[in-house]
Amino acid sequence: MTNHWLRGAAMVALAGLVLAGCASKGSKAEPANGGVAPYDGQTAPASGSGAQSYGFDADGNPFVPGTNQPLTRVFYFDYDQSQLSQSDLTALEMHGEILRNNPERAIVVEGHADERGSREYNLALGERRANAIRSFLTAAGVASTQIESVSYGEERPDDPGHSEAAWSRNRRAALIYR
Questions:
Q1: How many CB atoms lie under 10 A from the CB of residue 114?
Q2: CA–CA gap between residue 108 and residue 50 (Å, rounded)
Q3: pTM to 2 decimals?
Q4: Which domain holds residue 159?
Q5: Distance between CA 173 and CA 127 in Å, rounded?
Q6: Which one of 54, 76, 97, 119 has the fewest CB atoms closer than 10 angstroms to its CB?
Protein backbone atom coordinates (compact mmCIF):
# COMPACT_ATOMS: atom_id res chain seq x y z
CA MET A 1 0.00 0.00 0.00
CA THR A 2 2.84 2.40 0.87
CA ASN A 3 4.55 1.58 -2.43
CA HIS A 4 1.34 2.45 -4.30
CA TRP A 5 1.06 5.76 -2.41
CA LEU A 6 4.70 6.66 -3.18
CA ARG A 7 4.20 5.87 -6.85
CA GLY A 8 1.14 8.18 -6.95
CA ALA A 9 3.03 11.00 -5.20
CA ALA A 10 5.92 10.60 -7.65
CA MET A 11 3.51 10.85 -10.60
CA VAL A 12 1.97 14.05 -9.21
CA ALA A 13 5.44 15.56 -8.68
CA LEU A 14 6.48 14.58 -12.21
CA ALA A 15 3.33 16.15 -13.66
CA GLY A 16 4.10 19.36 -11.75
CA LEU A 17 7.63 19.46 -13.18
CA VAL A 18 6.35 18.87 -16.71
CA LEU A 19 3.82 21.68 -16.39
CA ALA A 20 6.44 24.02 -14.95
CA GLY A 21 8.66 23.24 -17.93
CA CYS A 22 5.91 24.35 -20.32
CA ALA A 23 5.84 27.89 -18.95
CA SER A 24 6.56 30.57 -21.52
CA LYS A 25 9.97 32.18 -21.80
CA GLY A 26 9.76 35.02 -19.31
CA SER A 27 6.71 36.60 -20.84
CA LYS A 28 4.95 39.32 -18.98
CA ALA A 29 1.37 38.89 -17.87
CA GLU A 30 -0.98 40.19 -20.52
CA PRO A 31 -4.08 42.22 -19.87
CA ALA A 32 -7.29 40.24 -19.64
CA ASN A 33 -8.73 42.31 -22.50
CA GLY A 34 -6.80 40.42 -25.18
CA GLY A 35 -3.69 42.56 -25.25
CA VAL A 36 -5.40 45.88 -25.78
CA ALA A 37 -3.59 48.65 -23.98
CA PRO A 38 -5.86 50.46 -21.53
CA TYR A 39 -7.13 53.82 -22.76
CA ASP A 40 -5.04 56.53 -21.14
CA GLY A 41 -7.02 59.56 -22.28
CA GLN A 42 -4.20 60.86 -24.49
CA THR A 43 -5.37 59.44 -27.80
CA ALA A 44 -8.76 60.74 -28.83
CA PRO A 45 -11.07 57.98 -29.99
CA ALA A 46 -12.44 58.35 -33.50
CA SER A 47 -15.87 59.85 -33.61
CA GLY A 48 -18.55 60.00 -36.25
CA SER A 49 -18.90 63.79 -36.13
CA GLY A 50 -16.23 65.68 -37.99
CA ALA A 51 -14.55 62.46 -39.04
CA GLN A 52 -12.37 62.43 -42.14
CA SER A 53 -13.53 60.72 -45.28
CA TYR A 54 -11.18 57.91 -46.23
CA GLY A 55 -10.70 56.68 -49.76
CA PHE A 56 -9.61 53.39 -51.25
CA ASP A 57 -6.97 52.85 -53.91
CA ALA A 58 -7.45 50.64 -56.98
CA ASP A 59 -6.53 47.56 -54.92
CA GLY A 60 -9.13 48.40 -52.26
CA ASN A 61 -6.63 49.54 -49.62
CA PRO A 62 -7.49 52.61 -47.52
CA PHE A 63 -5.70 55.94 -47.73
CA VAL A 64 -6.35 59.39 -46.30
CA PRO A 65 -7.69 61.68 -49.06
CA GLY A 66 -5.56 64.70 -49.83
CA THR A 67 -2.38 62.88 -48.91
CA ASN A 68 -2.70 59.73 -51.00
CA GLN A 69 -0.67 58.13 -48.22
CA PRO A 70 -1.64 54.55 -47.46
CA LEU A 71 -2.92 53.93 -43.98
CA THR A 72 -0.64 51.75 -41.83
CA ARG A 73 -1.80 48.15 -42.10
CA VAL A 74 1.10 46.31 -40.42
CA PHE A 75 1.58 46.49 -36.67
CA TYR A 76 4.74 45.24 -34.96
CA PHE A 77 5.11 43.62 -31.54
CA ASP A 78 7.88 43.17 -29.00
CA TYR A 79 9.41 39.75 -28.48
CA ASP A 80 6.93 37.23 -27.05
CA GLN A 81 4.26 39.94 -26.64
CA SER A 82 0.81 40.58 -28.05
CA GLN A 83 0.03 43.92 -26.43
CA LEU A 84 -0.59 46.83 -28.80
CA SER A 85 1.72 49.80 -28.50
CA GLN A 86 0.40 53.32 -27.91
CA SER A 87 1.82 54.37 -31.28
CA ASP A 88 -0.44 51.85 -33.07
CA LEU A 89 -3.69 53.11 -31.57
CA THR A 90 -4.19 56.14 -33.85
CA ALA A 91 -3.90 54.06 -37.02
CA LEU A 92 -6.15 51.36 -35.56
CA GLU A 93 -8.75 54.00 -34.65
CA MET A 94 -8.68 55.16 -38.29
CA HIS A 95 -9.23 51.58 -39.46
CA GLY A 96 -12.12 51.34 -37.01
CA GLU A 97 -13.68 54.48 -38.45
CA ILE A 98 -13.28 53.18 -42.00
CA LEU A 99 -14.95 49.89 -41.13
CA ARG A 100 -17.78 51.54 -39.16
CA ASN A 101 -18.49 53.89 -42.08
CA ASN A 102 -18.22 51.10 -44.67
CA PRO A 103 -20.14 48.14 -43.22
CA GLU A 104 -19.88 46.30 -46.54
CA ARG A 105 -16.08 46.15 -46.13
CA ALA A 106 -14.32 43.50 -44.06
CA ILE A 107 -10.77 42.69 -43.02
CA VAL A 108 -8.64 39.69 -42.22
CA VAL A 109 -6.17 40.23 -39.38
CA GLU A 110 -3.15 37.98 -39.91
CA GLY A 111 -1.03 37.26 -36.83
CA HIS A 112 2.63 36.32 -37.27
CA ALA A 113 5.61 35.39 -35.09
CA ASP A 114 9.35 35.03 -35.58
CA GLU A 115 11.00 31.62 -35.89
CA ARG A 116 12.00 31.30 -32.23
CA GLY A 117 9.78 28.96 -30.24
CA SER A 118 7.87 25.85 -31.22
CA ARG A 119 5.46 25.82 -34.14
CA GLU A 120 2.50 25.42 -31.77
CA TYR A 121 3.65 28.23 -29.50
CA ASN A 122 4.16 30.60 -32.45
CA LEU A 123 0.72 29.79 -33.87
CA ALA A 124 -0.82 30.64 -30.48
CA LEU A 125 1.24 33.85 -30.24
CA GLY A 126 0.18 34.90 -33.75
CA GLU A 127 -3.43 34.24 -32.75
CA ARG A 128 -3.06 36.41 -29.63
CA ARG A 129 -1.62 39.22 -31.77
CA ALA A 130 -4.45 39.02 -34.31
CA ASN A 131 -7.02 38.88 -31.51
CA ALA A 132 -5.51 41.95 -29.81
CA ILE A 133 -6.30 43.97 -32.93
CA ARG A 134 -9.69 42.30 -33.34
CA SER A 135 -10.57 43.16 -29.71
CA PHE A 136 -9.47 46.77 -30.15
CA LEU A 137 -11.55 47.21 -33.30
CA THR A 138 -14.68 45.60 -31.85
CA ALA A 139 -14.31 47.81 -28.75
CA ALA A 140 -14.13 50.76 -31.17
CA GLY A 141 -17.54 49.81 -32.58
CA VAL A 142 -16.63 47.64 -35.57
CA ALA A 143 -19.03 44.73 -36.10
CA SER A 144 -17.38 41.40 -35.32
CA THR A 145 -18.75 40.06 -38.62
CA GLN A 146 -16.41 42.48 -40.43
CA ILE A 147 -13.27 41.01 -38.84
CA GLU A 148 -11.73 37.61 -39.41
CA SER A 149 -8.54 36.69 -37.59
CA VAL A 150 -6.02 34.04 -38.57
CA SER A 151 -2.60 33.03 -37.28
CA TYR A 152 0.28 31.95 -39.47
CA GLY A 153 2.78 31.76 -36.62
CA GLU A 154 6.27 31.53 -38.11
CA GLU A 155 5.05 30.04 -41.42
CA ARG A 156 4.97 33.26 -43.51
CA PRO A 157 7.97 35.39 -42.55
CA ASP A 158 8.29 38.89 -43.97
CA ASP A 159 12.07 38.52 -43.70
CA PRO A 160 13.59 35.02 -43.96
CA GLY A 161 16.79 36.09 -42.15
CA HIS A 162 17.97 34.78 -38.79
CA SER A 163 18.91 38.05 -37.09
CA GLU A 164 17.25 40.30 -34.53
CA ALA A 165 16.36 42.74 -37.35
CA ALA A 166 14.65 39.97 -39.33
CA TRP A 167 12.86 38.62 -36.27
CA SER A 168 11.53 42.09 -35.39
CA ARG A 169 10.00 42.42 -38.88
CA ASN A 170 8.33 39.03 -38.50
CA ARG A 171 6.65 39.80 -35.14
CA ARG A 172 3.60 41.46 -36.64
CA ALA A 173 -0.08 41.51 -37.42
CA ALA A 174 -1.31 42.67 -40.83
CA LEU A 175 -4.74 43.98 -41.84
CA ILE A 176 -5.93 42.77 -45.24
CA TYR A 177 -9.01 44.51 -46.65
CA ARG A 178 -11.54 42.43 -48.60
A1: 24
A2: 27
A3: 0.69
A4: 35-177
A5: 9
A6: 119
H or E segment to which residue 95 belongs = helix 86-101
Cα 26 vs. chain centroid, distance in angstroms? Answer: 19
Considering the domain boundaries, does residue 15 fall inside one?
no
Residues 6+ apart with CB under 8 A from 140: 45, 46, 92, 93, 96, 100
| Nearest residue to 174 (alpha-carbon basis) of 88, 65, 53, 99 | 88
Task: Tell me whether strands 147-153 and 107-112 are parallel, antiparallel or unpaired.
Answer: parallel
Establish if 143 belongs to a structural domain: yes
Query: pLDDT per residue over 67-119, tens digit each?
Result: 777 888 999 999 999 999 999 999 999 999 999 999 999 999 999 999 999 99
Say how far residue 20 (Cα) sits from the centre of its chain: 26
| 94 belongs to a structural domain | yes
- Residue 4: inside a domain: no
> Domain of 130: which CATH number?
3.30.1330.60
Domain count, the chain: 1
